[in-house]
Amino acid sequence: MNLSKDLMAASSTPIVLGVIAEGETYGYEIVKRVEELSGGALQWTDGMLYPLLHRLEKQGYLTSRWLVGESNRKRKYYAITDEGTATLNEQRQQWQVINNALNQIWRDITRNDDHDVQFV
Amino acid sequence: MMSNSSNHPFELEQRIAQWREFVLRRAAILEEDADELESHLRDQIDALLERGLHADEAFLVATKRIGSLEAVSKEYAEVHAGRLWRNIVWGNDKPSWNTDFYLALLLACCAAVLFHLPKLFGFTPETHEWVYARNFTLFCLPMLGAYYVVKHQLGQRGWYWLVGASLGIATVINLMPWQAESATQSLSLIHLPLLLWFLVGVLYTGNWWQTDGRRMDFVRYSGEYAIYFVLLALGGMTLIVLTNGMFWLIGMNIEWFTHQWLLPSGVMGAVIIVGWLVEAKQGAVENMAPVLARIFTPLFTLLMLTFLVIMFVTGRSFDVERELLIGLDALLIVVLGLVLYAVSSRESNKAPSIFDRLQWLLIVSALLVDVLALVAIGGRIADMGFTANRTAALGENLILLISLSGYAWFYWQFIRDQRSFALLEQWQTRFIPVYAIWAAIVVFLFPLVFGF
User: Fold this and answer.
1) Rounded CA separation A115/B123 (Å)
2) Where does the source fall among the domains of life (chain A) (predicted)?
């Protein structure tokens, strides 16, 4: 399934912040985690993640530092700030509103469908 | 490109290096971002290799997943609006700009204080010149190392290395029972900064010297460091001359202050400040240094060829005097530095150009000069036996012979047979430890062997 560009753009911030809120991590791990969470449906262009991370860092939602991991590979690790957590909560509420509304709509549509089937 | 899809790890490294070069060509993407993207690419490749893909397939899939560099760099430019101006405007939008600078300033002050500290105990550069000759590099270069331990977050291991190595070297150098007039001590002290510079290098690379790529960065860094240092020194000299002059005009002589306090503090501090400057303004000199290398390569080639021809025509080639020999070695070391830098600043995927042929000519003429020097040293040793100076010269010229032969060989293959430039780069980066080990031998073993 291909998700629309606008939907990807809108959802990427809460998803990235959410994944990092689970614990300090680096770009490649974030991509893997998102794939795992969406069952492979959310496939980002990997390169696009990094400008986003930098943007979030600039906005003060993330902090970063370079660490040399166990495989001797230097990686830039990102951690969420208090401000980032606050934004994430805010976004969560917004998404919940949309989510609830959509759920309601899906349910109504399904019910109407059932209705139709019964009476035709 | 030929499609001999081999699984050779070297070819993969080469492709990654090319890709990185390509990424860095975008003005909005800085060295650090390329590092980040590269580590992502490598993680991805590793995962794909584990799934049984061939190296070339893994590389293709991984780069494809990174996406169009055009689009990615556009995103970077949008996030970091200031970057496209980085070569023109002094202001840099790196968030750590200020902290980095204050850290460098603090360490620079520490180095300056360290230099003056022994004066409290009655040691001054005038009265104890050997004490200062032994220690002045130990006042400043470890501070530069400390800057990178903090900046690259090397943690405890970094501090252990830095403090351990510096204290170890300082103890050994100061406790050796030097004789009053000793050639060995001079040799040891000439090689000491080199050894410390490699220590800085290990910390600068941030990954303990592991990858060829970072070693190459270190060579590039050293070249740019030299240029910045000269610029700063020129500025500092102007400042001191003007200060002396202004006060002299109002009838005051403050040379004691400028020479004994301002100058040494400035030099000590500059060592660290330049380290900061090279990284903070990476973009600025990057464009200038390769140009300098291109200007001086033909000039040095011309100098050496003329020199060789005149030596042979006048028949003076086989009775080389001591002073001339020292001069030849100094010339060869400068040429080696030029070659090292030129290789590091060359884009590895470009086809051979006229400049590469010139570079080859420079290397071959340097080789000839080196052989000449070796013959002369051999003659002197045969006539008068081994001394510390002659042994050091012999060792140095032998190392130069091997190193330059490698360069000549790989350049030749690159120009003639279109073999990869990466082979040459590999030769360069793998040979660096040899210089470091040789420096350590001269600093520590020579005094023991030649009785201090």
Assistant:
1) 100
2) Bacteria
Residue B191, classed as helix, strand or coil, is: helix
For B72-86, write each residue's pLDDT tens digit.
888 887 777 555 533
Give the whole-angstrom CA distance, residue B436 versus residue B433.
5
CA distances from residue B410 to A97, B218, B401, B405 in whole angstroms, order as listed: 66, 21, 14, 9
Tokens of residue B125, six digits: 């550069």
What does pTM read for this prediction?
0.64
| Amino acid found at B275 | G
Paired residues of A62 in beta bridges:
A80
b/e burial code for range A95-120 (CB count within 10 A of at least 16 → b): eeeeeeeeeeeeeeeeeeeeeeeeee
Interatomic CA distance for residues B50 and B42, integer angstroms? 12
- B332, amino acid identity: L
Q: How far is Cα B335 from Cα B293, in angstroms, rounded to an integer? A: 10
Which one-letter DSSP state was computed for residue B37? Answer: H
Return averaged pLDDT per consecutive 10 residues of chain B, 452 residues in all. 48 87 82 89 92 90 88 80 43 56 92 91 85 91 93 86 93 88 87 94 80 81 89 94 93 89 93 88 65 88 90 73 84 92 76 87 93 89 88 94 95 83 86 93 91 80
CA–CA gap between residue B163 and residue B160 (Å, rounded): 5
**Cα–Cα distance measured from residue B136 to residue B173, given in angstroms and rounded to the nearest whole number:** 12
Distance between B338 CA and the closest CA of chain A, angstroms:
30
Find out whether B224 and B278 touch, Cβ atoms under 8 Å: yes
List of domains in chain A = 5-119 (1.10.10.10)
Q: How far apart are CA B97 and CA A63, in angstroms?
A: 15
How many angstroms from the chain centroid is the CA of residue B249?
42
Q: Looking at beta carbons, which residues of chain B come within 8 Å of A66?
A: 152-153, 206
Give dist(CA B183, CA B450) in Å, integer.
9
Contacts for B428 with CB less than 8 Å, ≥ 6 apart? B216, B219, B340, B343, B344, B407
Q: How far apart are CA B88 and CA A35, in angstroms?
A: 41
Q: Which residues of A touch B80 (CB under 8 A)?
A: 54
Which member of A27, A58, A68 has the closest CB to residue B79?
Answer: A58
Which stretches in chain A have pLDDT values below 50? 120
What is the identity of the amino acid at B404?
L
Q: What ipTM goes with this model?
A: 0.85
Query: Please, which residues bridge with residue A68 across strands?
Result: A74
Rounded distance, CA A13 to CA A115, Å? Answer: 39
How far is the alpha carbon of A56 from chain B, nearest alpha carbon, in Å?
Answer: 9
Q: Which residues of B touch A74 (CB under 8 A)?
A: 35, 39, 206-207
B211 dihedral zone (left: phi>0; alpha: psi -120 to 50; beta) = beta
Measured CB to CB, residues of chain B less than 8 Å from chain A are: 32-33, 35-37, 39-40, 42-44, 65-69, 71-72, 75-76, 78-80, 95, 152-154, 206-208, 210
Distances (CA, A) of B29 to B6, B20, B32, B217, B230: 31, 11, 8, 17, 28
* DSSP-derived secondary structure letter, A3: P
Q: Do A47 and B37 touch (CB under 8 A)?
A: yes
Q: Do A47 and B33 touch (CB under 8 A)?
A: no
